[in-house]
Amino acid sequence: MSKEDFRFQHTPYDGSSHPFTVGLKPIDEREWLEPDAFLVPHLAEKDRLVSERRDAVFRAEDGTEEAQREVLALIVENLKQYHGKTHKFQAGRVVIADRGAVVDLSNEPALLTAARLVQEDLVLMRPGPDGYRLAAASLSFPSSWSLAEKFSKSMSAIHETVPGFNGARMGLMVARLFENLKVGQFVCRFNWSIYPDDELYNPKPHRIDMRDGELALSRLFLRVERQTLRRLPGSGDIIFTIKIHHDPLRALEGHPERGQLAGQLRTQLMALDPDQLRYKGLANARDKLAHALTELSTFEAGVM
Length: 304
Description:
Layout lengths: L24 E2 L12 H19 E3 L4 H18 L4 E4 L2 E4 L5 E3 L5 H6 L5 E6 L6 E6 L8 H4 L4 H4 L10 H12 L6 E9 L25 E11 L6 E11 L9 H14 L2 H6 L6 H15 L4
Antiparallel strand pairs: 1-8, 2-7, 3-4, 4-5, 6-7, 6-10, 8-9, 9-10
Helix pairs in contact: 7-9
């Protein structure tokens, strides 16, 4: 399949999910990982980032080595079972189909080796006295957050800037979920944001400013995070995966369901409160963007 076939693979802004809610849904084990037509460039970008700024994209506490190896083993098992078209296994190594790159499975740290096999970023969450904390991560494609700033911090500290998370129902629900997640359970949720570029490595907060009258849909990208959680059967830690999808907003113009998608995106955009808009970098862009989405959605219905 071509890369265009994977545009708008996930559209949580269509009403199936809602921003700033937990929104977890069960998935099957075969859906845990998502290699797609962007596998080769995404893995190449991971390799570049590790080579040029390793400390920015990988960190691990001492004592997480066994849990890291557990993650690697589970990813290898899943790829063998469900993704043989993209990953070819040999003795102690994996060949990435269509790339020719060989990943030695004996390389340490194991979490970094695991991350070189998949598009997903891998975050290891470990229980402690203050709740679950970020104990290790291969985070090449952050969405406006820094691994250096969040490393070894608890869930509440990690999400201190997220509107409505701490001291509210959402934070309590997430803490309860982490405590009660069973081995063999797979759950998934989505986030969406709008970014001014399609860079995968995006650790700094961003702001969309359209007061200069720039055409709303010409340069912007819908950035969708697909997040999954599963408990490791050996260590009891939780592995949190993050897969990035980038869709040019202008590509909505050619989508067969553009009216519905543009209309639903506008509805969710208009429902964000001021704090949520600031968090998403949309405080100065909402009205112009909403107007452009209205024009796009009504065009399909023959109004324009």
